[in-house]
Amino acid sequence: MAKVVLLGTLDTKGQEFQYIRDIITGAGLGTVTVDAGVKGSPYFTPDIDNAAVAEAGGTSLFELQAKDDRGLAMAVMTRGAAKVVSELYENGEVAGIISLGGSAGTTIGTTAMQALPVGVPKVMVSTLASGDTRPYVGVKDICMMYSVVDISGLNSLSRQILANAAHAVAGMVKGGAPPVAAEKPLLAATMFGVTTPCVTKAREYLEDQGYEVLVFHATGTGGQAMEDLIDAGFIKGVLDVTTTEWADELVGGVLAAGPHRLEAAGKAGIPQVVSVGALDMVNFGPMDTIPEKFKTRKFYPHNPTVTLMRTTQTECVELGKIISGKINAAKGPTALFLPLKGVSLIDVAGKPFYGPEEDAALFDTLRQTIDRNSVELIELDMDINDDEFALAMAKKLVSMLKQ
Q1: What is the set of domains in the chain, with CATH numbers?
Q2: Tens-place pLDDT, residues 185-202
Q3: Are the C-beta atoms of residues 110 and 130 closer than 8 Å to each other?
Q4: The whole model's pTM is what?
């Protein structure tokens, strides 16, 4: 029977884990406790002890205790916890997972959660949940709850927070997945606020053609999540309208997706239609967070927490080289669409980022570097959010899929 996994350091957080275990079992669910502590004795006897976790991580518990190296212990127990939880899932024993802790406990807990598929309920109560959670959440559906107070014993406040977390994971597990609709081929699309009209029009057309479209917000983790699902074999075709994450990767913005963005579809050999959506911008936080070296550049305040910076001609040349390099390597059918009148809602005549010279640098570089033997280049004299541009891309993807 699938159960809720309780993963953490039972030597230092055992009282708190016992508290949430009692709530979850009181809700009628079974539990599996996994101890990732190293030094002390567990507060209560776990179902899977720390020796087993250490062995799964490649080192004996005795050796970890003898070396007394916190960094080594963290690495081994993190690796071991992920392996133990993965094996439990493969054996059909995981209906959900909950963990709690500070920096070490959060690393151990979320690494194990990232080893589980999307859809498995995951709750992490953490002292770090009010900061930058990207390293912990990654591309998985991990719910992080801020502990407010340190996780150090039970008190009137921590009891309420831990109870909420326990009821949350219990409710997700008991609620179960929604009824599965008739299976349709899954497609992926990338969107930003400034390419929303394009992607919406294309999505509607693709859905009318019998496909299900997963739209990913091109915020760095969005692109990574899409590539992760492509690697896992879920996606049959890609409408990569919004490749803006590469602008952040190149220039140093806050929404980069890493150096492997725009590779997964090509490696998988699935059809992909690619465009240059929002390559006119690099993303930063509020104006006072922008690095000094960029202060003389052209900016646009998207909202109080997001400031956009216009890419230069030099940067657009580099972006063209990067994108052509990625799609030239594709093993499957690939088409590149260029919107000659603008790559975003604010890169059109009369709008703040209108830049015909910058766009020309991007387009010319792509024309010169694309391998015409493997990539079909399609240029349309309209902006990216024109309905006809969106439909042209969607129809090209459908034709590729049918072939």
Answers
A1: 3-175 (3.40.50.12020), 186-402 (3.40.50.12030)
A2: 999 999 999 999 999 999
A3: no
A4: 0.81
